Amino acid sequence: MSDARRHVRFGSSEAGGSIGGLRWSQVAITGAGAAAMLLCLRAGGPAAAAAGLALGAAALAVAFVPVAGRPLEAWAMTAVGWAVRRGSGAHRFEATAPVAGRRGGGEALLDLPPCLDGVRIDAIRTPAGLVGAVREGAWLTAVLDVEGTSFALLDPEDKDRRVAAFGHALSSFARPGSPVRRIQWIERSAPQPVGELARHLRDQVALPVDHRSVRSYLDLVDGAGPDSQDHSCLVALQVDPRRGGRGAAREGRGALLMRELNALSDRLLAAEIGVRGALTPRALARTLREGLDPDGRWALDGPGGDGDGADPGRFGPLALEEGWGVCRTDSAWHASYWISEWPRTDVGCDFLLPLLLGTGAERAISVVMEPLDPSRALRAAENARTNQEADEELRLRAGFMETARRRRRREAAHRREQELADGHAAFRFSGYVTVSARGLAELDASCAAVEQAARLAHLELRRLYGEQQAALTYTLPLCRGLR
């Protein structure tokens, strides 16, 4: 059997430096510490010398000593933002909708937490019906409900073919003048009671209840014990009319969004990915609400629920409270992570399966991608390679040896430049994971399981301390998570 499988290779996620691999903030802090130390030494006296050495050591510690994987200087903006939110009360939200009532026309009044400020759901009329679109400033986002297949059970050749086809479908959006700002895919898992399996059999299989096969399946369901997992997958596309030139402005945001969304849907179908269709305004509101309030899905599906979604003006939580490492909304506690490190070695296209299928935790995985203009991406890659070569030469002159990690970064920069020169599409991307549970003890157990599964997938997760309120929205179909 030949080993001709396609392998995936990721570049380093470390940010490039300005001088010798250092960030500008590190250079500034180190320079300020050195200047303060020299001034103290020039002042003379043992006390001034001791103070100067202390200031220099403190500057080095702030610039280079890591705390939870990040230097102290990198925590500065996070800590300041957290302190401002705590001081202003923006870390806590309580909706006034229950006592505000409705206007005479009956429409709901938007009542959203700070992390969703400015988000609205519009309705775009198409020949096939209404399509929901998230409006945020000039940006407009629509969401496709994608039907999952038994990818884990496919032959390696079929897996490689489908992943290559998916990449080809995305590459068409990385073109000059493309109005597509970002593309995001989200995979969610939620507990599914065993009763749902029996209902699925009743709805999908045209056999009598007393049939031997049906009875055998129902007996298996009755003895299943713990709840199973319900998985769903969404693909969101966001357009910015300002990126499409005058033609996009004349076309209108709604028509522009639908044109690009239809193109994405056709390409996904060509890649053998099932597309159920674009979410309606009510279905989109429901999707946002489920991401913020997981128990809301049972209220909508249970007795009295109409099953067609949620009120587009009621997709936000009724209460939210942000902690340093968690965020609590209505029925659940959430902990959000950033995928800080992707596989450092070559992996197969199914490397994410341990994280996707290996835990029973309730979680959402999101990858947000920004297509880049090919010519600009090539120039950026050439500049990055030049800067890295100059940094390595500077380090060698200073007596530093080249480490294996820095050598891999240099090789990745050369490979990226070569791929772009060969005509491959360029994307900037980032990944996030949000774990949800009904209590803190359950959340801790679920987080431990997800972190272990991520390790099996060769991923490194970092909890986004001090940014949990904003990070929770990164796993909603809003195409957020990149600056």
Q: Any key phrases for this structure?
A:
globular; 22% strand; two-stranded antiparallel ribbon; alpha+beta; 13-stranded antiparallel sheet; 43% helix; 483 residues
Number of strands: 17
Number of helices: 16
Give the N-terminus to C-terminus distance in angstroms. Answer: 45 Å
Task: Assign a percent range to the helix content.
Answer: 40-55%
Q: Report Rg.
A: 26 Å
Shape: globular
Low-confidence stretches: 302-306
Instruction: Specify the structural class.
Output: alpha+beta
Q: Beta-sheet strand percentage? A: 15-25%
Major β-sheet profile: 13 strands, antiparallel
The residue-averaged pLDDT reads: 82
Characterise the protein shown here.
- This protein has 483 residues and is of the alpha+beta class.
- The protein is 43% helix and 22% strand.
- The protein contains 16 helices and 17 strands.
- The strands form three sheets. Strands 4, 5, 6, 7, 8, 9, 10, 11, 12, 13, 15, 16 and 17 form a 13-stranded antiparallel beta sheet that branches. The chain has a two-stranded antiparallel ribbon with strand order 1-14.
- Strand 5 (119-126) and strand 6 form a beta hairpin.
- The protein is globular.
- Mean pLDDT is 82; it is low at 302-306.
